[in-house]
């Protein structure tokens, strides 16, 4: 059943190629009174299909799966939403405003593919051996437009993302890996608006604004909104 705007239930899809992992995650999620698992799938192709069909709030996405991996699946989920939300024929209502967020799960804290997943639009990542209490906290946070980086490796991830931010031919930060909507949000952030002001300008909810900002933080390796504004100026997107 598609949720109504008043529903607070967090609808979750679990994507992992190992049955016991899917079952364990599903038990943890379903044990929470404000969460429900709407589907479990074994690969990226199925994850994309069920997300497009059911539009969950959060996808728990394994990185390494046969066929389409978690990185490509994350990219297709977030790209599809950007395309969908820029369709000129839609109204600015709750349903079209809804964004599915992705929480990447990985076994290794040194997995290079992880950075690709964050750049693909994931709102966060977590090590699979993290405590169940951390998992449900992370799900709630990204469902509400926030971001989550496993505390054990947060510093390393941010430093790596920042160090690998591509530069254009002028030596400025490249925005090529950002969607048009993310570029628009980054431009509007130049004069320091609040989330409420951004939501009004973009005709979306504050939760959607938070999701866009969390993805911008991940993709640019920025620690906070101030560094995002610095990226906007350094890239030439915003001028003094």
Task: Explain what you see.
The protein has 240 residues and is of the alpha/beta class. It has two domains: 10-161, 3-Layer(aba) Sandwich (Rossmann fold), CATH 3.40.50.2300; 166-234, Winged helix-like DNA-binding domain superfamily/Winged helix DNA-binding domain (Arc Repressor Mutant, subunit A), CATH 1.10.10.10. 48% of the residues lie in helices and 12% in strands. The protein contains eleven helices and six strands. The chain has helices at residues 19-30, 44-54, 70-85, 94-97, 113-119, 132-143, 154-163, 180-188, 195-202, 206-220, 225-234, and strands spanning 10-15, 35-41, 58-62, 101-106, 124-127, 148-149. The chain has a six-stranded parallel beta sheet with strand order 2-1-3-4-5-6, sandwiched between helices. Strand 4, helix 5 (113-119) and strand 5 form a beta-alpha-beta unit. The radius of gyration is 17 Å and the shape is globular.
**What is the SS-derived class?**
alpha/beta
Q: Sketch the major β-sheet.
A: 6 strands, parallel
> Class of the largest domain, according to the CATH hierarchy?
Alpha Beta
- Large-scale geometry: globular
Mean pLDDT across residues: 83
By CATH, the architecture of the largest domain is named 3-Layer(aba) Sandwich
Radius of gyration: 17 Å
How are the strands of the largest sheet arranged?
2-1-3-4-5-6
Summarize the amount of helix as a percent range. 40-55%
Sequence stretches where pLDDT stays below 50 over 5 or more residues: 1-6, 86-95
Order of helices and strands: EHEHEHHEHEHEHHHHH
CATH topology of the largest domain: the name is: Rossmann fold
Q: Output the CATH homologous superfamily of the largest domain.
A: Response regulator
| Overall tally of structural domains | 2
Task: Compute the number of strand runs.
Answer: 6
Beta content comes to 5-15%
Q: What distance lies between the first and last C-alpha atoms, to the nearest angstrom?
A: 48 Å
